[in-house]
Amino acid sequence: MAANPYILVLYYSRTGHTAKLAEHVARGVEQVAGMEAKIRIVPPVAPTTDEVQDPVPSDGPIYCELDDLEECSGLILGSPTRFGNMAAPLKYFLEQTSSLWLSGVLVDKPCAVFTSSGSLHGGQESTLLSMLIPLLHHGMLPVGLPYTQTRLMTTAAGGTPYGASHVSGHAGGAELSEDEGALAIALGKRVALLAQRLLA
Question: How much is the pTM?
């Protein structure tokens, strides 16, 4: 366990919408005293095996290492929807975590998920559920958004009990709505609070 407890906010984003959600999730984490948000991304997958990604992105968050996962106090995972499933780069990264599964280092740590899609019925909930499956295999404790978050009943865009979400619109130009941003912050805060209780 890291000396300073942190929640790992790990995501893949192609157009920036999932990245915006990640920023709000991290803000929620950091509302909890003594808890840090560590933001990391996964690299894109190449269409051929000849292409090699730079070891460090030129800007923004850096790529996640297995040590980031091993030492976290909780994990919040994000991906755009891809036909109702998580994006291939995130799935590929998770498939490289067998050593952590064998050692059981993620067991009993809280986790949550977030996503973005181009349309309101673009597979958000199935994407969120698909991201939880490998986390359940790791023995993590899934955290959603309870209906005490009243914005779940009033949002006209994203936001689900399974996790935070954003609808970017057909052309991809829609910014996070007030409800979407607030629910993402609430999700980050909820995971951080639970992690804090489990560490006590």
Answer: 0.93
